Amino acid sequence: MARIDVVVDDVSLDAPTLVEGLPGVGLVGKIVADHLVSTFEMDYYAGVHCEGVPQAAVYRGERSSLRPPVRLHADEERDLLVLQSDVPVSPAEATEFAACITGWLDANDVTPLYLSGLPDQSEKVPEVYGVSTGGGERLLDDAGIVPPAEGGLVSGPTGALLYHAGRNDLDSVGLIAETNPQFPDPEAARAVIDGGVEPIVGIEVDTDALVDQAEEIQDARERLAKQMQQADDESSQAEPLRMFQ
Hints:
By secondary structure, this protein is α/β, with parallel strands linked by helices. It is 34% helix and 23% strand. Helix 2 (94-107) crosses helix 4.
């Protein structure tokens, strides 16, 4: 049965913000989520058992307890949740996955920040753009985040999450970062944190390590990046809409 199982009862959250970290182009969301969980030493809060999540078990070094591959971590002090994923969500079941997540967010008064990469192979500093549903536009305006200059779409599971947020009139924000489409991009992840997550959530995050350890990050995630490239339809990404006349 599709559900989200909260595993702790001593964490109290008041209208928290969620940062989504599903694997996508450039692994931007994945890197952001992993960095937040590590930096703030966030507590394992809930297992995500929605349709589309592979039935796999995750183990950690020097620990015997297993965790689901997609899970929520919480920081009570910052009223912050992070959706961390070690596997791609099946695109064929993205609709069911998004409905499961959205229902739980709505019931628990959670405002989600959904992350996606916009393929860009230039050498310039990545730009971060914002889209929204419900009252999310106010959050973007307050943070000074502008929409993309060109129309486009967000695909994959992250696109389904944004679609369901809109259908349910849920306040949500989509942060779209220019990113290298071929390799993990910690620079784009840092841009998302500095220019999006920090001003919207109202927190400070040390991101120097993301760039200092870029080579280590790339080595650790190279296998997952190749998997995402080979299964292109599994990758959440933003892309321009091509207009035909």
